[in-house]
């Protein structure tokens, strides 16, 4: 098994896992959770998809992993306390989406990946980035997947203490990340695997089931008994041994992407 490759792509830190086999290969890009695993390196360890004949390039989310301020999460937590939606959740998804085209071009310049459609995968808030790439960009994608994904941002906001004081601006921001309202766009782009832990937050679990239902034959549900929201133990920043439930998720993702890699050839 090849060792991970670390670097930056247009300023975005990444952990890349080489494919089985030699030569140029297709590309799957991921965005990690803000829960554990909360860095590109930790997400790569939790769901490495090692048996795929494709590059898996795990990108770092803003202010996470190598982009933490002074090596700590404190600055991100302060943004969360200031305004969980407008200072934290929404700008993180915005930044990750906006920096992706340049990062993708840099990845292709650095690694022997082909120039065809890519796979996209996101966990939790990273799921909103993957869904936004599908719904709001024209980057060619052969298949997508989300794991305990942030499918409807108002459901994510509801996880934080207190009642959020929505106004016109914040309401518009939250609704721009409601992917239940963008199912036609998603269905027209690529098939989607929705991985949902049966013990995930009830609102996120309900959103996952609703998204699969709305996408019809363009989506599949992989329901994982016993899985709550995280895929790794705390603190979730450094790579850690793969947990048994994460291994189930990893196996499902590997099967999904292997099938659609073959169809994309």
What's the short story on this structure?
The protein has helices at about 40-45, 75-80, 85-100, 100-110, 125-135, 155, 170-175, 185, 200-215, 245-265; strands at about 5-10, 10-15, 25-30, 55-60, 120-125, 140-145, 190-195, 220-225. It is of the alpha/beta class and about 260 residues long. It is globular and about 55 Å long.
Task: Note down, in words, how this protein is organized.
With 265 residues, the protein is of the alpha/beta class. The chain has a single domain (5-264), classed as Alpha/Beta hydrolase fold, catalytic domain (Rossmann fold, 3-Layer(aba) Sandwich), CATH 3.40.50. It contains 10 helices and 8 strands. The protein has helices at 40-46, 74-82, 84-98, 100-110, 125-136, 153-157, 168-176, 183-187, 202-215, 244-264, and strands spanning 5-9, 12-17, 26-31, 54-59, 118-123, 141-147, 192-197, 219-224. Helix 2 packs across helix 3 and helix 3 crosses helix 5 (125-136).
Please give the domain count: 1
**Estimated radius of gyration:** 17 Å
Uncertain residue segments? none
Estimated structural class:
alpha/beta
- The H/E string reads EEEHEHHHEHEHHHEHEH
The assigned CATH architecture is: 3-Layer(aba) Sandwich
Give me the CATH fold name.
Rossmann fold
Coarse morphology: globular
Summed over residues and divided by their number, the pLDDT gives a mean of: 93
Task: Please report the total strand number as a whole number.
Answer: 8
* CA-CA gap between termini: 23 Å
The CATH homologous superfamily corresponds to Alpha/Beta hydrolase fold, catalytic domain
- Specify the number of helices: 10
Q: Kindly estimate the percentage of residues that lie in beta strands according to DSSP.
A: 15-25%
Widest sheet: strand ordering: 1-2-4-3-5-6-7-8
């Amino acid at each position: 098994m090849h060792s991970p490759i670390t670097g930056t792509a247009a300023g975005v830190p990444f952990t890349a896992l080489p494919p089985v086999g030699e030569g140029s290969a297709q590309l799957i890009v991921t965005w990690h959770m803000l829960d554990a695993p909360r860095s590109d390196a930790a997400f790569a360890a939790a769901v490495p998809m090692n048996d795929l004949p494709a590059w898996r390039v795990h990108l770092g989310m803003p202010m996470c992993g190598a982009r933490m301020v002074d090596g700590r999460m404190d600055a991100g937590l302060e943004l969360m306390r200031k305004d969980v939606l407008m200072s934290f959740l929404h700008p993180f998804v915005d930044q990750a989406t906006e920096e992706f085209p340049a990062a993708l071009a840099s990845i292709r310049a650095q690694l022997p990946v082909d120039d065809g459609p890519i796979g996209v995968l996101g966990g939790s808030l990273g799921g909103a980035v993957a869904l936004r790439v599908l719904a709001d960009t024209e980057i060619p994608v052969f298949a997508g997947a989300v794991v305990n994904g942030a499918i409807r941002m108002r459901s994510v906001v509801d996880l934080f203490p207190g009642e959020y004081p929505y106004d016109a601006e914040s309401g518009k921001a939250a609704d721009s990340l409601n992917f239940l309202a963008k199912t036609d766009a998603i269905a027209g782009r690529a098939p989607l695997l929705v991985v949902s832990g049966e013990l995930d937050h009830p609102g996120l679990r309900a959103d996952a089931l609703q998204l699969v239902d709305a996408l019809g034959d363009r989506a599949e549900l992989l329901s994982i008994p016993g899985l709550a929201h995280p895929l790794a133990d705390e603190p979730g920043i450094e790579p850690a041994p793969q947990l048994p439930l994460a291994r189930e998720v990893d196996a499902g993702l590997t099967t999904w992407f292997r099938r659609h890699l073959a169809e994309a050839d």
